[in-house]
Records
---
Amino acid sequence: MSVLAIRQVTRTFGGLTALDGVSFDVHEGEIFSVIGPNGAGKSTLFNIVSGFDRPTGGSVAYQGRDITGVRPHALVRAGIARTFQNTQLFEELTVLDNVLVGMFPVTRAGMVSAALRLPHALREQRLATEEAQRLLRMVGLEEFASTPAADLPHGLRRLLEIARALATRPRVMLLDEPAAGLDSAETRELASLLYRVRDSGATIVVVEHDMGLVMEVSDSIVVLDRGRKIAEGPPMLIQKDPAVIEAYLGEEASDDD
Amino acid sequence: MGGAWRRHLPAIVSAALAVVVLALPLAVSDRYLLKVFMFVGLNVITVAGLAVLFGLAGQVSLGHAAFVGIGAYACGFLTARAGWPWPAAVVAAVAIAAAGGLALALPTLRLRGHYLGMATLGFSMILGIAFVEAKAITGGNDGLSGIPLPAFGALDLDPATASYLLVWGTAVLVLLLASGIVRGRPGRAMTALHGSEMGAQACGIDPIRVKVTAFTLSAALAGLSGALYALTVGFVSPTSFALETSIILLAMVVLGGTRSLAGPVLAAVLLTLLTYVDAILPGLSKEAVAFLQDWKGDIYGVVIVAVMLFAPAGIAGVARTVRTRLGGSS
């Protein structure tokens, strides 16, 4: 069953078309990658699916329901979590507290029960802390639990965002360039983490530049170029697709470095 | 064992302070001094709400004195003119102030940026005029007088002590409840929102809802402070709720610091006592007292600027830094 159905999604910014009639399906339980040269529209697509942006045209359906234009927090509650290319951590809070904030949609204590320290609020807080610690172990950050997020080594910040997103108990995880800034050992760690997340029952959608990682972990890939979908399929076919090769060769030819 | 001590130390210190504060009338016989300490308590109640709004949720209000005014006039009118019993009047006053806060926050917090600051400023200007012009309720410039002192049934306390205990008993209760909110799930959502709005949204937090809740809560506490002010002072006049009062309240939370109740409470104590420095330091020369009182507004202004420049996280931030350094070396 398709868990995400992107249909004819178009997004224009003034005269610029960032996305032009993009359609594809993401299926339950797969690791799905969105790739493409810089400026292909990948981040715009992510922002639309996660509710941070609205499409100019087209629709997004999640588990068969139209979610176009639904606000981000409501989508998180419905089961769509995301990480950011530019990490959006709570810098002053500890690593553990960052994950605890992620538990917000799955905990309930409101103003009154928190103010009165009602037993169920205290119990919920204790259970949430245990769960947050478990998630930190899962991503390998347990030793940093009481470190302020601002002091976390750069390569680990994305892992914390993944742990925080996992805390919301997502059905779909949108990861925006999770391997950016990671060395090869850390990227291997990330790949195994992605498998573990997928095996825990979440569908993963990745925007990623690291082709090695993409080809290794993806079940399915969509390639965007200048706002249009130019290819779709399993890694084997994408690697051989002439349109994809040309899009990337074009980028290399125009790059300065 | 040392760890357990350290963990419970803040609670033990808070409980001890609460006992000392509530027992103070036994040691202080000077009526005027007791009244000054009562004013400190009134500001502590308002500042507890602002500590949540500004220190946690990061929202600036330039008009909280107006909510204090709403609470004061509502409670004063209901007790002195409508003959309500004081506890019912206090509850109604808090509800009216909270409703005012909600009505102001709902439209303005949907907008991004500094609209809340401007809206609260405008709101306090409008109410400043309303307090003078709505003579039928407020008594205009003459003020609203004849508010009966609260009766405590069988308890026969002298008025100064009764007022002091009413205010500080409420303040201690407010701080206890507020600390639960600060440390619990709602406080964490506010802190997160202040840290990164996008990050908070990605955690399922609705920014508008959280900001509106924080604002309404702070307006309710300002209203509570105003209601108790009306009851204990017995007289309400419009000058008490001018812009200057809002700025003083803001100075207290800025100096007190972010993500903390203790910091803003300490700042509220210090800055309120500055106004009544003659009562605290009787030995101080008349000239020095006059100087401090004349330049009060400037002192508050300098405090805000200095804190913003040198310690943006306020007293609480400095305390956190010191604690981290000490913890690291031991």
---
Amino acid sequence: MLKKYLVLEDGQVFAGESLAAQTEFPETAGEVVFNTSHSGYEEIATDPSYMNQIIVMTAPMQGNYGIDDQVWESKRIWIKGFISLQMQFSKANATWAQRLIEHKVPIMTEVDTRKLVLELRNQGTPWGAVVQAANENAAREKAKGLIAQAKQVDGDWVWEASRKEAQEIVGDNAHGPRVAVLDFGAKENILRELKKRCSHLKVFPSRADAKIIEAYQPDGIMLTNGPGDPAEVKNAPATIRHFVGKLPVFGICMGHQVLSIALGAKTYKLKFGHRGANHPIQDRILDMIYMSSQNHGYAVDSTTLPESAQVTHKNLNDQTVAGFFSEKLNCLGIQYHPESHPGPHDAVKLFDFFVYKMIQKKEKPHHAHH
Amino acid sequence: MPRLEKFKRVLIIGSGPIKIGQACEFDYSGTQACKALMAEGLEVILVNSNPATIMTDPDIATRTYVEPLEVEFLEKILEKEKPDAVIPTLGGQTALNLALSLDKKGILKKHNVQLLGATPEVIEAAEDREKFRAILDEIGAKYPRSEMVKNFDQGIAAADVLGYPLILRPNYTLGGGGGGVAYSPEEYKQMLVQALHESPTSEVLVEESILGWKEFELEVMRDSNGTFVVVCSIENFDPCGVHTGDSITVAPQQTLSDREYQAMRDEACKIINRVGIQTGGANVQFATNPKTGERVVIEMNPRVSRSSALASKATGFPIAKIAALLAIGYQLHELKNDITQVTPTCYEPALDYVVTKIPRFAFEKFQGSKDILTTQMKSVGEVMAIGRTFQESFMKALAALEKNTEAIQEVDFDLEKVSYPNSQRIWHIFQAFRHGLSLNMLCELTQITPWFLEQLETIVKFESTFKNAELTTELLLKAKRLGFTDARLAKLKDFQTSNLKNIRHKFGIRPAFFQVDTCAGEFASSTPYYYSTYWSKPEGSIAMPKTIAVIGSGPNRIGQGIEFDYSCVRGVKALQKLGYKVAMLNSNPETVSTDYDTSDLLFFEPLTLEHLTEVFNVIKPEGFIAQLGGQTPINLARSLTQEGFKLLGSSLNSIDLAEDRKKFAELCRELNLSIPNSAMAGNIGEALQKESEVGYPMICRPSYVIGGRRMEVIENRGELESYFERHKDFIGGKNPCLMDQFLSGALEVDVDLVRGKNWILVGGIIEHIEAAGVHSGDSMGVVPPQRLKQETLEKIEKLSLKLADKLNVEGHLNLQLAIKNDVIYVLEANPRSSRSVPFLAKATGIPLVDLGMKGQLGLELTAEEKAYDWKKIKQVCVKGVVFPFKKFQDSDSVLGPEMKSTGESMGRADTYSEALVKAFVSSHLALPKSGEVFLSLRDKDKQPMLPLLSTLQKLGFTFSGTRGTAEFLKEHNVQCLSLNKVHEGRPHCVDRIRSGQVHFVINTTAGRHAVEASFAIRRACTDYSIPCLTESDAAEAFVLALEKAKTGRFEVSHLSF
């Protein structure tokens, strides 16, 4: 049988095993990233932000608790590969592996993931490919082609991940505001959190025209998470500029980055990104320090933000921008995931803050807020 | 918010003697906290009655008080030291309860002292179950249905409502003391009486059973800003019904989905906030129903605990240190993560490995006690192991128990042993899989989460694969990744262990050493805290030049506990002072030695030949130290030497001379030293031949039986015959019975000395209070000796030096001697640092371990060091002893040659009597001021006891006694109420003890029959916490203490030399 390899762009090879049940081993390429969350493999794999990425889990044992359709963050699995030290495949909890197999995601186990993670930490986020081959050299050859091909995808990953048709959702709170959501590759839980608090939601494609959105008469604009490089996102910055200052705008992750671009700021690629559920945040809006769920490869350069925007949220591990708020423009950008899934719920109150801003706006449409 | 400047002088309360449920984890937390606060420039006053701790080493705190942890002594210390605040959250339940009493009595207020870390309201909210339940109701958390009962009738009514089985939890007790599971009304009634008695407030929570539910624990921290982090999640392998201290546990949790886990995390946060914890560490225990997912809260502790020590070692997050810093005002984000050095302390560790904790039990020491695990903790120690997978970590932990090198050795299968929780269950589960029992059946029988059992099943299935397949590199690597020890694999292949190891090395299969870095590799880390794994290839070197390895003492067990960790830590520091780098190896998560900043390199590994060899191969030490970790390293010294590693200090030959009974006896004869007569016999015929050679009384024990079991004092031929009959299964030609002369009534002493190439120094002579026959670990002791003549002391010193020279000791030597009719008998020599070393170091101020290290390294002493003289000791120091009989139902508290105590205390004072009072009080013995003394004395004690009784009479005590004793006393004009013995009909003496009319008991017995007949008396005393003296010498000491206690005048003083 052919051996399984993860080949990094620079030619480094990590050997591993596949599961016997994965009789057809898909060969894929993508960015190789690691996530330090202890639980939540299903949420992670279905999060569109992981599009075109091969995910390495640092927690050594995966699949332990089976599956739960209720926690899917979108309708499909986005990751290009699932790599761990050990995958559970006993009678009771083979389900997660089976699900990945059904969705044609290559599973690699018995990979020296710690060594791999230290390498990813040093290299940044390299591209890589999961292949089967007779030996390392053959694997390198195969990987080269796959990686080259994968890298040719269009830069606007958000468009790829976004809904192409608008979708209306009736909220649970009849007295709540109406929200227009710009789908950059939205996690379901952003929508669930909004649904709980709002009367109506309408989810628009990422390239939706400002006028169409305006016609919906929203009380606020929600910009979701999504995959890829924020600088490559088409249309959305202009759309956002149309609403900024008029309606409360709340951007999460990619939404936060595109919002900052709309405001004239610049983003940059982090060396190896933040992916995990234990990043400390100093939040000056909720006036708390708490743990957050994170998944991003880019960050906003604080020096390029307009004067009216204050950096209100800081990642205490590396002091990068974790969020900003502009009172004048009534917009909030949050780099991490207040909707969690997976990860701690500590920041969920930011949704309340956004809803509060929308209600304020609704009640006093002619006054400047506060 | 940075540090609060108003706190300049802080008092830390320790946890006192080691007992089940409160062990050396609090030495770890207290030491860490002291170090952190001292580093902040605070003045730290420490009080702890336990001399075996590292925290009571004089340079850990500004001022160290080895004094009883009781209100009156604490008040005296507060008066003297005038601290600004007290931190009560680091010394277990003892410290919390003490702080609560200090507050209730208004003493804190009077001295203007603030409680830091936990307020009285918080302590009560968490400990008072009704208050706690009200809080849970408020936040919508569920808990098992239960009722608080305050008397027997209420208890019966509650049981009718809740149904069986029922869990009993007395209020305000530690380690679940007095609690348990009742399956039937009969059992319940009996337990209810006891539980009501155990609770200081006579309140017992009777709870609906959640047996079989999954159990979890979250270790959390909070700062004054409200920042909340979960340091570690822990999942119990054993389902609910087994105390978490007795459960095998795994970190991080393995079987919760993110949704379930986050809901639990949210609830923990709400509880902490609502209970009102301002700063510090806490833990919350949960149970979840495996079928419905329903979650209930079991309990929370607003303090650092046993599991926080485990969590600290499992994650690299120093909970106690951070708790101390938060208490003085810092917030989590202001403190740096020690391990990464770049990120702040407000984070939740991410683990890329699995940690397993397995408790170690001592049921074999307590004859009569049943090996059943319940909600009352019974384990005496624990091991922790780290591996990349559950299997690797679990198998390493089993190896670390030091029970069997195979780790999962085969056992005589007993299905019953699988069906209820007991200390042997895990091996029977493995065996059940070997016998082909199905996973489903085992899940049903054990109610253990299937995920765990699947992991074990995989291991067992691999055994047969391995047995039958050709031994290839691939197969062997797979085996090592599953955590198999070389010894087990060798057994499966019918090889010698060394052969298997050689093949493995030939195949190039060696473990890699990975760092514990708190962040799963996300950030660089330079902290040298390592574990081994076969899931990677070894790479790079972690060797440092001039490294010496110190082997620790492994899991605590009766006879090998915290004292040896003291020696190890002290030894590490001594080596560092001498310019060496030190690699520490240990498997016990409760210890200071396994703190990552104690040594230069820390290896959390099983202390077995295989694991140590692999570590040594990587760090290439200049030598290793085997004298500090008790018997564990001594037993490994020879084979490690054979592997080519250099033993420092006394040679293998010296060790052998001291350890081998036969060689040692010859050596003593050569030196003209007296030793007790001894002989060996394979059957009763041989025994009778040698009867006169040894003489009565004698001590008999089968050779090759662990832990001195079946050791008995034999008084006459009839008993000798009975002994051989009863133990015939354990005695034979290959394992003969050892017969030793018993030096009845002799005084026993411990001598500890250190020796270098051309110097030697006696560290002290401890005189035992009980006569020979009681294990040295179980007898109280005093230094300086109170009864020995000056001349005899000199003789003892001379003799000890002579022996040490003859043995050619380099480093430590401990001697046990007995003195009878001015003749000194040599009983035993231990070529290592002993249990009494920390006691002597604290009593005399002589840094014995440091000097011993110089001896082991062949170094000279300085003039100053040579001048140490233990006889210049300023105060009288008495060692008190703590026993766990209460936890072992049906165990007998009579003392004998087998050690049973778990911990020790120290009483220091200007006079012997005051030191005795302190030692007794510290060992939780009540000193009654008046009342009734029940006497049941053996004949030979009656006459000598008369003066003592007259003293008691003067003190205002009255007497009751069994008929024989009462009649004897009446003849001698001592009033004594005559009571029936148990078999003489009711009401009998035990009824009287149980009714609370007796205040203490003197019960001396001889001979097996008398001991058995009086068992009920001692058991009643144990159950009702009534002092029971079983030795006339101990009774004398007790009365001396009562006399002193009656005066009520005590002084406290800090250690100073």
---
Amino acid sequence: MLTFTIRRLILSVPTLLFISLVIFMLLELAPGDPMAQVPLTVPPEVKEKMREALGLGQPAHIRFWKWLVQFFWIEPQVLIDHYFGTSFSQGDLRVISWQTRSPVMDIVIQRMPQTLWVVGTAYVVAILIALPIGIYSAYRQYSWFDQMGTFVSMVGFSVPPFFSGVLVIVIFSVQLGWFPSIYDTTLVVDSWDSFVKQLQQMIMPVMVLALQITAQLSRFMRASMLDNLNQDYVRTARAKGLSEYVVVMVHVLRNSMIPVVTVIALGIPSIFGGAIITEQVFKVNGIGQLLIGAIQANDLPMVQTLTFIFAVLIVLFNLIADVLYGILDPRIRYD
Amino acid sequence: MTDAAKDKAVQHSSVQQESDKPARSQWRDIWDQFKSHRGALFGGCLFLFICLGVIVGPFIYWNDAQFVPTGRDFIKLRDMRPIYHMLWDPSAKMDWAYPLGTDNLGRDTLARLMFGGRVSLAVGMAAMILALLLGSLIGVIAGYFKKLDGLLMRLTDLFLALPLLPMILVAAVLFREALSKSIGPEGGVFVLIVCLIGITSWMPTARIVRGDVLAIKEREFVLAARSIGTTPRSIITRHILPNVLSPIMVSATLGIATAIITESALSFLGFGFPPDFPTWGRLLNDAVDRMTLFPERVLWPGILISLTVLSVNYLGDGLRDALDPRIRGR
């Protein structure tokens, strides 16, 4: 198992390098000009200087190499410096945003907590709702509960987050006035009142994100339970005289959780992607909104770094899912 | 399917017809199974209805989607409420000539919804066809030719590891200008969005098709075809492709659904079509700013997107059951 993990880790390096190259080439081949916003009265030689100041003077392969060095070599050093007070990165040039002229990673770190809070809570809530629904609708297949679950998850698949988000805003904050429609990130939770406020503003984005995840996860849980409920070992367990609760919740559930756990791991990066839209609807200033703003402002270093971070998340969680599958299911050992 | 199961299927689907009738075609069986799936039938009807309404509607309906009133008409026609508002607020500004009201520029909402539906559905269909062609081509080639298998599947894995939504957003912004210049603003954006969605959603189809081709390739009838000297090309087109048609059809329906959602998301984020060329996502986006005053402008496009996707998903569900010979006839 360890050799498999190490092999996969080593294999993911060229994958990530290739993905970063693809992202770089996409930005490189695009006909957009980062100097397009500069007024026409600026003389061409000044424009050329500005271009060089942004690091655009060199050929593409050198810029790509510089970005790689900055992202993989200098940024980790900055992180180490930050934690241990050393000074490895003294004087090194970091990835600089064109919008704010400050290091990209600093802004990302600022924005990360908001996204993690909303997305993380939504994911946990979704798992807590989806698993019992999946278990019960598999146990009572074709009952009215199961039919309802099928319908609700079909709706959850079909209603896009930008509509469900707007819908809950119209209902709960415009008509009923229960929750604020805009997520206030400056709120500091230090008392009971501010905690309630935080809870109120988190409910809607979390519910919108959780609906989508619940829809997929509960279907998956149901299918996985159904696969296991007809197995021979379940009959054996019943024949031994075990109680129904133990049969379902211990024997069947533990086996059906194996694929579900990997699906949960695989879904995490796609949630970050989906959160882009939800963040836009509820005006949460997380990394999704940062990405949208950077694209609109033609801030290429920021866009490249953020897209690459998404790619790293996908590759990382694919790896985690594969390893988890091997650990949980002894029938699947890769070596 | 065994003979007994077949008999049972025939009896089940049409009791009055005895089994001494001539053999029924495969498509007839599929249709019978499809009919028995209530959700699928309903979804299919709803989808057809939406398509028809969107295609035929503008010919029957009297208002023009692109018409913007000016001068005094503008004041008179703008911000009209839907006629069903009469039920609870008779004093609201409305007119029977504008059943769903007008927007803040005086454009008719129903006409814009129909126009937007045409664009949304056209984008969905075109992107689905592109993704399907790419996916089937890569899947068949990877499954049939062993030499290319590893390479093409690594490519598929790589595409699956790309952060697709961010990349679509980036590409939609960066390539818009250039394409608009060469093809025109609407056509350029249409081609761009169809290509982006198509290129980023072929991977599931390719994987499924490859798996099926790998299994079918080893069957006796393919061996027989090869032994009488059939070229690989005609083996693929005559013997393999018809047998992988059912997974392709199922992923086609699901492909429409995801394409419509992706396009609406793009338009919603402001990276899609220009405002005078509405799609459902764009209409939703335009209405969000004033949704406290005019919630119906948000609701209608959203409901239409959701209903279309829901109906297509149900259609796909029923199609999967109907095309699977193991389930059919039970």
---
Amino acid sequence: MKQNADVKKQQTVQPDVLLEVKDLKTYFYMPSGAVVKAVDGVNFTVKKGSVLGIIGESGSGKSVTSRSIMRIVDEPGKIVGGEINFKNRNLLKLSEKEMSRIRGSQISLIFQDPTTSFNPYMTIGEQLIEAYLVHKKASKEEIKQRCIEVLKMVGISNHEEIMKKYPCEFSAGFRQRIFIAMSMIFKPDLLIADEPTTSLGITIQAEIIEALIDVKKEAGNSVIIITHDFGVVSQFSDDIFVMYAGRCVESSPKKKLLLYPRHPYTVGLIRSVPLLEARKTKRLKSIKGFPPDMVNLPKGCAFSPRCEFVQPKCLEEQPMLREIEEGRMVACHYPLMDYRTSDDTTLE
Amino acid sequence: MSVPILEVKDLKKHYPIRRGLFNKQVATKYVVDGISFKIENGQTVALVGESGCGKSVLLRTIIGLEDPTEGYIYFKGQRYDQMKKNDVKEMRRKIQLIFQDSLSSLHPRFTIKMSMEEPLILYGMKDAKKRDEIIVNTLNQVGLDPEFRFRYPEQLSGGQRQRVIIARALVERPELILADEPISALDVSLQAQVLNFLMDLKEKYSLSMLFVAHDLAVVRQIADHIMIMYAGKILESAPSIEIYNNAKHPYTKVLLESAPSITKGIRDEGFNLNLKIGDTPDPASPPPGCLFNTRCILADEKCMTVIPEPVEISPNHFACCHKI
């Protein structure tokens, strides 16, 4: 029996896995006594050099997941269970000192709002140098070389000029690009981008994603991109992970998920995206109802009040995440096995 | 043809930049710079542009929160600055604005009922019972439980608040609705809900609408006519079918192509951004020639010096570009 377990363990630790999140639980203990289960048993893995897209609506726990990986969950939030294995070390077992050595050097986080991520009183150059010196002592020449390299990665060529300026002298899109450069300064193995394009216009958004793709191509790092925009994840990621009410409802390789979504929530999300290519139809198909109240989650499946395929079992029993095909996990009692999003057969 | 409900002629809104001890004007911001368009009765016109292109200022000018620097606005054929005081009041009733940020546009210490009641009181409805009746009806119309009128804004979710904003715009039975990015702050699943709902309203009450968005995909379902705005000017204006099938201006094409899409994702297509990296021009110092020349990949010498005039491509389809 024990031998069996050992064999199983060896199988789960694959050599090409960079990050493995196991049964992560982050709860918020409100002063009122209520417990908000913002992340409630989430499992996923990120392979080396791949891009994972986490998609969900506001309040679904996607940002808390990323903050849990960095261990920067704010009070009254607490990581109450699970494992976060990064390069075969459990980040939750590390001391704060060890963790701060990993932050920024091996795992970097890009925030949604590029305005508040910079110190307004320091020049871009000073902040880039500071980001470097936190982790390593180096000569001026060496640091400057690295700064120029990372700025080039994101398509900024006039670095001399940029380094002397203050954050407020740039537009939001430009600042976000500089921030991506800054987060790459220590060649992290994992870059977490938390809604990196949400507040930006279409063309600027495309520029930022292009910058992320370029950076990834050059540095070969893994990326977790967190967003509520299906368009962004579908063009950038290899695997997609859909979250609803603190849990994973579906995870799958990108193409399969987009063409054959299995969970009713995924189907609803994809259908409610306004498509440029679509014929001018009269109505979009929306998901009825509202995202759930995280304090009083419904019994059974959290999506059941909004689900159009709801059955009696869904109201009673919470569905567990299970594998329905190779590499595809769904948390639904009655996954939609023969649904497809497009009639276009050339998409296969 | 009947008189259009709203007509804007060569509208300009410039802001002075003042510096120094004597507040001397050192420069001018050309935020809205020569815009003309019409909205016919029952028509929905979409104004699409990225942040900073001046679309919100244009809306504020239309509703009368700002005075235009130059140019005229006509509501049902009447010029704003020639209206009598009573007509102005009436016009403000008939034009309603839906704001983008639902939290900051509702008074945090007013209940929903108090917020919705205000315009009614302002226009002299003294009967409290009747006011309540109207509010209950309107909330029902937007699909909200009438009990919500006793709640405070922070007790509602984003989508519910956005409906309250729409409901508040509707209590006065407007004829023209100006919607300033009404859905961009909402979650994807709610965006579709609100968009569908606006379309229902439009049909039911034959409302005219000016719908502002930063994304062409969003307005696909709702717009009859689309205008593309960039740095204070309209670069292309056409019936919506023309924009999607026969876009002429390079900027419109970029907007259509660079939007991330699910279909492209399935096909594993990468991004092909036909755009020079850069920012939208500073409204205080617009580039000479075509405004888009700093980012356009087709730009040549002529574009750098000569301002392109609108060219008519087909009826009602105009584009400002030398390269068509």
